[in-house]
Design goal:
The structure holds 2 protein chains of 2 kinds. Chain A is an alpha+beta fold. Chain A is 28% helix and 40% strand. In chain A, a hairpin with a 5-residue loop joins strand 2 and strand 3. By secondary structure, chain B is of the alpha/beta class. In chain B, helix 9 crosses helix 15, helix 11 packs parallel to helix 15 and helix 12 runs antiparallel to helix 16. The longest helix of chain B has 16 residues. Chain B is globular and about 70 Å long. The chains are: A alpha+beta, B alpha/beta. The interface between A and B is medium-sized, with 20 and 17 residues.
Chain lengths: 163, 593
């Protein structure tokens, strides 16, 4: 099952490599990973998308907690949460494709952020499934390039992760 | 409580040493930090990147530096010292190859949760990343085998980082911490105002006290058990909780086993002790493990060498209570019913207190029946061995003789890895904690001599024996030289069967006797070798010479003695659980092959 794990970690050199190293050393998956400092520059927040049985996820959170620089770990998927991912897709847009691509971008509430006479770059924000759906919906051969940030997530309402 | 005592000591010494600000260099701060931590010994090897540090060591006289002959041995010796004393072991090596040589030692300590601080030199900060001479990414290389590591980028951080390193190494689940110090940092000067008295880390707060509700629940389950079993590991020793364990076992009257790492936590001479369990455990211990209805696991981690095939282990229903300071050890390989996260000593103390108040007592009838079953297993005397002809020395006999001779001497026994290690664990009956020193987790050949010399330095009045094989001993044999220089007379009991015995045993049992590269054809003359290093060498070829040789070696108190026992090359370690089998599916002797 898919899990989104949020980690608050000391914003120090090498801290991220401890997290990534843990996953590779113990054979866990990282499906996506996004990291940036928080409003407190001494802390970084990692959102990590992974999958595994309940036992595996339990071990992952325990091992993350064991890392000296990790301050807090929350499995967002255990409660209500919101998830967003930014995706930018460069698509071929020539002739009648131009109209079609623009319409698809509108349907998915995307924005065209770069235009040439042969291509559009479309910005999309949404949960991972929505971005997947967009890629499914457009003509596959029209995709020239895709870049995605991976999911970042936050708990709903009173669910707050901070020090 | 040893851990917090060490912390308090460090704080007290630090405040005693606090002073008016002075302008000194990074190496001097490092040395002052070690002094504030009460460090007596540092095992190390100098090199370019640590020259300033060695210069600072030269100018002081409270810390004794031991010059080893290979960096791996520096870490092993400091590790052995830590295992025997409970103090943090300290090693010092240079950058690049100094570090890579130390890696085996660090991984060995990590797998067995040994508190250590390893100081490594690094090329100057401006040269890092430029493939400088003797540069390697120390923090990167050691990351998966340390509890934590630091790169000191600014000399002003030195004292704080040292304080954190020692704090992290000795608290919680202990482990090795690497502090990597670039050469320029060790030389830059800064204002030093004294060693910090406390550590402030929001991200690191190991628990000590267990959850009382869980402890109460556990106790109720334990007291109501019909076939209880207590299984304890290295965590009991690390937490200095042997006394509490003994009290608890005695109060309950339950059978008890220790893992390879936990031997000595409960006295082997007591009837309630069923011997070691696991791959080479006793019938009674393995059967009790498999057939109990309530299992109390204390500071042990259900290692693959202990429970065998987990599917087979799970075939019998039992309730499991698991006390461990590291939550990630709980429910890792085996699902646990009542987890208790906390320091073993704290939890056992609380448990004993509750037990005293508890009106319910174990049911004497079912307990008597359980003991009857256990005694039937025990009566098979699975450690008996064929003494064979009078011409050939049985390795078990050497260990038994050593035990008979030294059982009242409070001796320390180190071992390397292989058959001799298992025989030492089976036939030397450890009654006290921290007397059996071996590499259980990583299984590192070559630790025996460095462990012994590290211990001998800390315990100069104790007898220290290294039970080893002719394969393992050659992996750090150069340390015989260190033993002479620092006057650490150890006794090496080499069970020399001309084979890499454990490999040979597996090849006999699992590879139809195809002894692929397990025979050592060109062994050195160990007697001459010992003599060349300035020690005493003995060759013992006949069973009747075993006892006199050990007696003579003991008499030579001030000498390191290498005893080359030529033992039966065909002897195997039994009982044995083959890889992939359940722990009760034991081979008991050559007749089972």
């Amino acid at each position: 099952m898919k899990h989104i794990i949020a980690v608050l970690i000391e914003n120090e050199a090498g801290a991220l490599s401890r997290v990534v190293g843990l996953f590779s050393a113990r054979g866990y998956n990282i499906e996506s990973l996004t990291v940036a400092p928080t409003e407190d520059p001494s802390l970084s927040r990692i959102t990590l998308q992974t999958s595994g049985s309940d036992d595996v996820i339990e071990q992952i959170t325990k091992h993350l907690n064991r890392l000296i620089e990790v301050v807090k770990v929350v499995d967002l998927t255990e409660g209500a949460y919101t998830e967003r991912e930014l995706m930018m897709v460069k698509v071929r847009a020539v002739g009648k494709e131009r109209e079609e691509m623009k319409r698809m971008a509108d349907i998915f509430r995307g924005r065209v952020i770069d235009v040439t006479d042969k291509s559009y770059t479309i910005e999309l924000t949404g949960d991972v499934a929505k971005n997947d759906a967009f890629l499914e919906a457009i003509e596959h051969s029209a995709i020239l390039e895709t870049v995605r940030t991976g999911a970042c997530g936050i708990g709903r309402g009173e669910r707050i992760l901070r020090v | 409580m040893e851990i917090s005592k060490a912390e308090l000591q460090s704080a007290a010494q630090a405040s005693a040493l606090s002073q008016t600000p002075i302008e000194i260099n990074g190496s001097d701060i490092l040395v002052k930090s070690l002094q504030a931590e009460g460090v007596q010994f540092v095992w190390g090897y100098p090199g370019g990147a640590v020259l300033h540090i060695y210069d600072a060591l030269y100018k002081q006289n409270t810390i004794e530096h031991v010059l080893v002959r290979h960096e791996q041995a520096a870490v092993h010796a400091a590790d052995g010292y830590a295992r025997a004393t409970g103090e943090v072991g300290v090693a010092l090596v240079t950058s690049g190859p100094g570090v890579t040589n130390a890696v085996t030692g660090i991984a060995t300590a990590y797998m067995d949760s040994i508190p250590m601080v390893i100081i490594t030199g690094q090329v100057p900060t401006h040269a890092i990343g430029l493939d400088a001479f003797q540069e390697c990414d120390t923090v990167g290389i050691t990351r998966p085998i340390v509890k934590h590591n630091f790169l000191v980028k600014d000399v002003r951080e030195m004292a704080d980082i040292m304080k954190k390193a020692f704090h992290i190494a000795r608290t919680g689940r202990p482990g090795p911490v690497v502090v990597d110090i670039p050469k320029d940092v060790s030389f830059k000067r800064t204002t030093y105002t004294g060693y910090p008295t406390s550590v402030d880390m929001r991200s690191y707060n190991p628990v000590r006290k267990g959850h009382s509700g869980q402890i109460r629940k556990a106790l109720q389950l334990l007291v109501g058990a019909k076939r209880p079993f207590i299984y304890t590991g290295g965590g009991v020793l690390l937490s200095e909780a042997s006394a509490e364990l003994r009290t608890l076992v005695d109060m309950l009257g339950y059978p008890c086993t220790n893992t390879l790492m936990g031997l000595g936590a409960y006295p082997a001479s007591d009837r309630k002790f069923l011997g070691m369990l696991g791959m080479h455990g006793t019938i009674e211990a393995n059967n009790a493990m498999q057939n109990c209805d309530v299992l109390l696991a204390v500071g042990a981690r259900f290692d693959d060498r202990v429970i065998g095939n987990p599917k087979h282990f799970a075939q019998n229903e039992r309730k499991i209570i698991h006390i461990d300071i590291d939550p990630s050890s709980i429910s890792k390989r085996v699902k646990v019913d009542i987890p208790i996260v906390g320091d073993v000593k704290d939890v056992l103390t609380e448990m004993i207190g509750m037990l005293r108040e508890l009106p319910a007592k174990p049911d004497p009838q079912s307990l008597a029946a359980w003991w009857e079953t256990i005694e039937a297993w025990r009566s098979r005397d699975c450690l008996k061995y064929d003494h064979g002809s009078s011409d050939v020395i049985k390795p078990q006999y050497v260990v038994e003789t050593l035990w008979n001779m030294t059982k009242d001497a409070d001796a320390y026994i180190t071992s390397d890895v292989g058959q001799h290690q298992m025989w030492a664990a089976q036939y030397y009956r450890f009654d006290q904690p921290r007397r059996w020193i071996n590499s259980g987790g990583l299984g590192t050949m070559g630790v025996g001599i460095p462990y012994a010399m590290g211990i001998k330095l800390a315990k100069p009045d104790s007898e220290v024996y290294c039970v080893t094989g002719e394969g393992s001993v050659q992996m750090c044999i150069q340390e015989l030289s260190t033993c002479l220089q620092y006057n650490t007379p150890i006794k090496i009991v080499a069970l020399n069967n001309r084979y890499l015995g454990m490999v040979r045993q597996w090849q006999e049992i699992e590879y139809s006797g195809r002894y692929s590269h397990s025979y050592m054809d060109a062994l050195p003359d160990f007697v001459k070798l010992a003599e060349a290093y300035g020690h005493v060498g003995m060759l013992i070829e006949r069973p009747e010479d075993v006892e006199p040789a050990l007696r003579e070696a003991r008499r030579l108190k001030d000498r390191t003695v290498f005893m080359d026992f030529r033992t039966d090359p065909t002897e195997n370690v039994f009982p044995m659980v083959q890889a992939g089998k359940g722990i009760t599916e034991m081979l008991l002797g050559s007749e089972d092959l």
